[in-house]
Design goal:
The structure holds two protein chains of two kinds.
Chain A: H1 3-14, E1 20-24, E2 27-31, H2 37-46, E3 52-60, E4 71-78, E5 85-92, E6 98-100, H3 109-120, E7 123-125
Chain B: H1 11-20, E1 25-29, H2 33-41, E2 64-68, H3 76-85, E3 91-95, H4 96-101, E4 122-124, H5 131-148, H6 154-157, E5 178-183, E6 188-191
Parallel strand pairs in B: 1-2, 2-3, 3-4
Antiparallel strand pairs in B: 5-6
Helix pairs in contact in B: 1-5, 2-5
Chain lengths: 167, 197
């Protein structure tokens, strides 16, 4: 299935104004609102053959020029039989950035969504086990948010000290 | 009995002689420094010349922990547990810039020097250090063991709890915290609270 057929299928199913598209070299993007992202992903998996969630990440657009929304969430889909790739992008905002989980569609979303949650604090409804994946469990901040200081807030010094006297 | 048939020494000296020439390193390698540590153990540099070739991956068999590489917050409890599992007498080498000071990784998750959390005897500078520097560190540690070592290991018991880790030379004040990147248009970093022009 070519990109043009996929976009035509999306227009037919969701309406012509329901999403925006962008293009950079051979990188095709579909930008959808957060409330429709799950339906679009389900359609792309079920009808367009995107059987693999290759990558998923987020972007914090705080202080980004001309940005309207705070967080962008990016899904990179791959059709492993045809080799087609498609990027689906959506936006969420504070104070409660939440998206429906893509875990029912692709099991790969399990750790990817945990990573996005760990680094940006975006929650995923319907995720089976939404815990931190990289940072320690007791960590409270979301370190890749742009308003989090590069050097942290002292967490890296706040650990127990072991001396010779203790062994 | 001729005079040359015996000599007089202390048990401390004999114990230190045995210990220093048979250091068993525990390679706590977390990054590229561990590659240089392997090179030090290989035939060209040959750490066996100094009696420290028996690297064991169980801390219970070792008496020298070589922390080679950057250590993150999540690794500190692991490192401390390994250190506690090693039998006395034991020593620690902090190998490379990252283990000694955090190196270039001045970020929220990287520990700025392992000596803030476990005792360290020898520091090796370098990024990563040459194998010769590791050998020099072994020689320095041997000298130190021979000079201060005791049979009962009372030189360790005498060490009291140190004061809190000294502040870093480049400690950032809370008011001075940088937000990175601050301004996307000019790619400059802003201080927290500062507005981009």
């Amino acid at each position: 299935m070519t990109h043009d057929e996929i976009l035509a299928g999306l227009r037919e199913r969701f309406g012509p104004d329901s999403f925006a598209t962008a293009e950079f070299r051979d990188n095709r993007r579909v930008i959808v609102p957060a409330e429709r992202v799950h339906a679009v992903l389900a359609f792309l998996k079920g009808q367009c053959g995107f059987d693999m969630l290759a990558e998923m990440t987020a972007v914090d657009y705080l202080r980004y020029p001309n940005a309207k929304d705070r967080y962008g969430v990016v899904y990179c889909l791959l059709d492993t039989r045809a080799g087609t790739r498609l990027v689906v992008k959506t936006f969420v905002n504070d104070p409660e950035p939440v998206l429906p989980s893509a875990y029912p569609l692709w099991k790969a979303a399990d750790w990817l969504e945990r990573e996005v949650y760990d680094m940006y604090g975006i929650r995923f409804d319907g995720h089976p086990d939404l815990r931190r994946i990289l940072m320690p469990e007791e960590f409270t901040a979301y370190p890749l948010r742009k308003d989090y200081p590069l050097r942290g807030k002292g967490e890296r010094h706040n650990l127990p000290v072991l001396t010779r006297a203790e062994g | 009995m001729a005079l040359r048939d015996f000599f007089v020494t202390t048990l401390d000296w004999a114990a230190s002689l045995a210990r220093k020439n048979s250091l068993w390193p525990m390679p706590f390698g977390t990054a590229c420094c561990a590659i240089e540590l392997m090179a030090a153990g290989a035939s060209r540099h040959d750490i066996a010349r100094f009696g420290a070739e028996a690297m064991r991956f169980s801390p219970r068999q070792c008496d020298l922990m070589i922390v080679a590489g950057r250590v993150v917050m999540k690794m500190v409890p692991v490192m401390q547990r390994i250190w506690l599992q090693m039998p006395e007498p034991k020593w620690c080498i902090s190998m490379g810039a990252c283990a000694s000071s955090g190196g270039v990784f001045d970020t929220y998750c990287t520990v700025q020097g392992i000596d803030r959390f476990i005792p360290v005897d020898i520091y090796i500078p370098g990024c990563p250090p040459r194998p010769e520097q590791i050998l020099q560190a072994i020689i320095d540690l041997q000298e130190r063991i021979q000079k201060g070592g005791t049979l009962t290991g009372k030189e360790f018991a005498a060490r009291t709890r140190p004061k809190n880790p000294a502040p870093l030379a480049l400690e950032v004040l809370p008011a001075d915290k940088m937000v990175a990147p601050g301004d996307f248009a000019t790619a400059t970093r802003l201080r927290e609270g500062e507005k981009s022009p």
